Protein 1
Amino acid sequence: MHPFDNLSGSDVMNQFYGSPDQVRLQRKLHERVDWTRNTPGACNPGRFLGTDDPDALGWDFIVETLREDGAFGFRMIPIDQCADIQANLGEHGFRIDFWDVFSADAQEIIPCCGPLIDAGLPEGLSLVTKDELADQAVIAAIQSCMDRNGIVPFSGDMLSGRMCPSSMIAIKDRDEAIVATAYGYFLHNQHSSHASNAWGGLVAVDAAQRGKRLGVLVNALMVSSCVKDLEASRVHELVSEANEPSRRMVQRCGLQPDPTVRSGIATRGKDRFTR
Ligand SMILES: CC(C)(COP(=O)(O)OP(=O)(O)OC[C@H]1O[C@@H](n2cnc3c(N)ncnc32)[C@H](O)[C@@H]1OP(=O)(O)O)[C@@H](O)C(=O)NCCC(=O)NCCS
């Protein structure tokens, strides 16, 4: 059974976050979440609608959605299709930014991340508990931490686990301020060959805490939780070519570059949608 099958979809927190455009897209994703779960070629990139098989989903639909929404996700696209997709989007007045995919099997993640997790948290820092994730103020603080570190957050429903099974890891300091975050979930549906491959991301460490291996720790906790709690057979993360700390962080957790696929966000703006 796919994990989405267990969810009722009711009793939501929502808590959209960001600019009016970002909130509009999150709201639409909420309205269409069943579509992302049940439609061949569709997926849930977390911030807007998306596809992991553009031909199955249909280009007319993709272009029409892009015209309406201004953003659309392309996930796990075979490398030999990326140039054609870029050209096709260009003909319709859109651009696409790609991220490299790093991934590892469950059997590779656990032995690699175990010792990193055993090293423990630095003095004065502690983990946000599962119960605390039900608190909207805590979710707001997590969203704010992501935002100030250049990561466009997901809605409260997604981060708190109300919309789908997920692994939200957050680290707080003595004053209860959130200083580091990471999040994983299944974005591909049961029609996809990536259905049991969890996505991990939204990794943020506050500037004052950087360079102390907190990124490695929060990321190791997140990818391990994807395997142990969500029962993912594989976990992947997306990193831009220019983000050296992030590339090193994910590789330290055992994820290796996958040269066969790339993931991207199509937009009409001139800036990347997120870091
Ligand atoms: C990416 C990020 C989470 C790393 O957090 P961090 O706590 O500073 O990282 P760590 O101390 O755990 O170090 C992780 C790796 O990056 C390396 N690193 C850290 N800062 C670096 C820098 N400025 N330049 C190059 N490498 C760096 C570390 O040496 C380590 O690599 P190693 O294990 O091979 O030695 C943090 O920089 C951040 O929040 N950036 C902004 C948001 C972001 O880009 N998120 C990732 C989106 S994919």
Note: The chain has one domain: 14-267.
Protein 2
Amino acid sequence: MRGIKTICVCGAGTMGSGIAQVCAQAGFQTIQFDVNEAMLSKSKALIKMNLLILSEKDKIGIAEKDAIIERIVFTNNIQICRADLIIEAIIENKEAKINLFNQLAAINNSETIFASNTSSISIHSIANEIKYSQQVVGMHFFNPAPLMKLVEVIKTETTNNEVIELIVAVCKEMNKTAVICKDVPGFIVNRVARHYYLEAMKLIELGFATIETVDAIMQATGFKMGPFKLMDLIGLDINYSVSKIVWNNLGKPERLKPSIIQQQKVDANELGRKTGKGFHQY
Ligand SMILES: NC(=O)c1ccc[n+]([C@@H]2O[C@H](COP(=O)([O-])OP(=O)(O)OC[C@H]3O[C@@H](n4cnc5c(N)ncnc54)[C@H](O)[C@@H]3O)[C@@H](O)[C@H]2O)c1
């Protein structure tokens, strides 16, 4: 694609790993950067396994499988993170994201696009602190990134129109559906979905139902996953941070108040699938 050849995905966790796979599968030279070597190894193993499953199902050929993995450089050296597009998927913390983008701005140039996969942090508040603020955009993938079609593309008052056009074209190249969203708390999906999680946790807190019942009933009504299974997949730390940020940014309305039982899970490091225990056991 014209303009975007190399993509650097920062963070090799739940989302970063999936996004790196999506980038490489779409034919982009991909750099996967993480400060934690163990996460890089885990991500590489997971991507290899996902590609093997695809080849066993005849969705990709053996040669293609090998070519995709070869397109990804896994690194903990930020100095090699030079790319046309940077997609950050690190922890849900504004200062950490700003700090990372500023380090990357110092070794990239004014043409580089800085996309954040944040679920809840205002893109404007990040862009405001970055040298190339007109190049900053939200690119919100969903979990698991290789399977979920939707990408929310978040435009701020300062985002260059050409940047939006390029990101929409990149999404198309990745076989994703891009929806342009306003930079408002929770964007669209996370704003609507907050109630799915919060009301479910309220039922448990009040002793009105069990986790198993709520999950089973919601799944039976047609949702792919019940709220507790979904929170375990997302990561309770991430989901709790998103709830806090959306709640704060909307002026702390009672209806969106973060859940005490979720906070307790996070404090106990029971973060869901990634730690082997959350609302359910893995
Ligand atoms: N989990 C989800 O379902 C989901 C969905 C959509 C968007 N998001 C967003 O994606 C982002 C990442 O979420 P996740 O669930 O993948 O988190 P995660 O905890 O699974 O992974 C975060 C990774 O970032 C790495 N990291 C931390 N600081 C770093 C730095 N300064 N430089 C490089 N790497 C660093 C960590 O080592 C870790 O591997 C968050 O902003 C989150 O809101 C998450």
Note: Residues 37-56 form the longest helix (20 residues).
Protein 3
Amino acid sequence: MDNKSYQDHYFRKAKSQGYRSRSAFKLIELNQKFKFLKNGIKLLDVGSFPGGWCQVVVKIVKNGKILGIDKKKITKIKGVNLIKGDFLEENSKKNIIKFFNNKINVILSDMAPNTTGNKSLDAIKTNELCLSILEFSNEMLDKNGVVISKLFMGDDFEEIKVYAKKTFKKIDFFKPNSSRDNSRETYIHCNRLNT
Ligand SMILES: C[S@@+](CC[C@H](N)C(=O)[O-])C[C@H]1O[C@@H](n2cnc3c(N)ncnc32)[C@H](O)[C@@H]1O
């Protein structure tokens, strides 16, 4: 599928199913593969605007405690608590910790920086965000918890792999079909902390 057909296909699919973003299908595929969305979990979704992933989460997870955070304001989603803030700021992290008041079972991040058009620079910035999620997870994730984060195959990909291997018992990489073939985007799935 060429880029335009890809965009049209997932745009129509998202619209017909009531999702705010095409990204929703990436989370659906990730969950089909790794099965981390379960009833009663505490779940953090970072970089959640416009809210497609949160919509998928509330459809599947019953009686969960769900928090979404993004720099941009997200329109309300029933069953999801939303914070507008920059995840990299200490104050946002404090707000997240205060909200859960306990360890988190699932941490998701689809964070992406504003693209510059320079593929290497975009990859570096995305991977910095990924590393910050893994570091935060090291502190705040339940020892049997799961982290999923977007990353880009780039020069600093190895650094993430080394950190993830050191921090988690099991790591995998997965590129959903709904992620464009020509994009270097992929997702890391990390399972259970090395305590
Ligand atoms: C690809 S979009 C997420 C789409 C979302 N998963 C969905 O399904 O609707 C990436 C988001 O990451 C957010 N983002 C980037 N850097 C961030 C940061 N430091 N803190 C919070 N959000 C951030 C952007 O504002 C953008 O809305």
Note: The longest strand covers residues 141-152.
